[in-house]
Amino acid sequence: MPSRNHGRVQTNLIVEFFQQQQFSIYSELTLTIGGVNYTPDISIYPRETADYRHDEVTRTELPLVAVEILSPSQSHQEVVEKAELYLRHGVKTCWIVSPPLRTVTLLLPGGREAYDARIELRSQARSKVQSRSALRNGMLIASAASGMDMPTK
User: Fold this and answer.
1) How many Cβ atoms from other residues are within 10 Å of residue 34's Cβ?
2) Could you name the CATH architecture of 4-48+57-145?
C-alpha cells in the first residue's frame, strides 16, 4: 500500500522524467504479463501521441523502464522479484527506489546492476541538482539499454 513518502517520491520522479521529451511517462499503468496483471509505480515508453478517445485499462506492450518505489508494506525481496520478472519479459531497465535509504538501484536483464546511487530526496536546491544529475545519468543508462538516443543538453 503506497504511503505519503511513496506518493511524494513518485510525483517528484514523474516531474523529472517528464522533462525528457522523447519519453511518455505513465503512473500506475497496469501491465499484463503472462496473463497476470502487474502495476509498476511508473512506466516509461518511447514518446507516444496522446489519444484521449481510446483508452487502455491494461497494456501488454512492456515499457522501456519500470520504476518500483518501496512502500512500508513491501519487502525489498518482493520488489526485486517483481523487477526481475519485468526484465525477463522484455523491460530494458528497472529502477528500485528506496525512500528511507534515499537510493535508486537500476537493474538490467541478466542480473546486472547498472547504477546504484544515493539520491537526496529533499527540496534543498543543492540536493535537487544532485538528484537531477543522478536521474539524468539513470535515464542515459536506460536509453542506452533500450537503444534510444537521448539528447545531451
Assistant:
1) 8
2) Alpha-Beta Complex (3.90)
